[in-house]
Fold this sequence. Notes:
This protein is mostly helical.
Amino acid sequence: xxxxxxxxxxxxxxxxxxxxxxxxxxxxxxxxxxxxxxxxxxxxxxxxxxxxxxxxxxxxxxxxxxxxxxxxxxxxxxxxxxxxxxxxxxxxxxxxxxxxxxxxxxxxxxxxxxxxxxxxxxxxxxxxxxxxx
Length: 133
């Protein structure tokens, strides 16, 4: 897959509708579980900062840098949805995990030895996030 194909796939994500959650009953216990997805180590806030960091750092691959920015924007939409759901469940959308630990920039992986390892890391963390759903 080349940059153009990947860019087209990422761009098409804007047209995919998110499922609507119509019926939500206040449940602080469920809201607490969602804090990990909002701002835990592999939560949406961590994903956003990871992709923005990569966007800034991947200067030798400008096309890929642009794709990282688009992915970060998609992750922002996820962050917003999870935050809204937490509020509907009866809690505030604080940037904490389910144990009450504040989000921390140590969740961002800063050192990669090459672009392949960067992409492998991104794929693995997305897989883990998907499995938690």
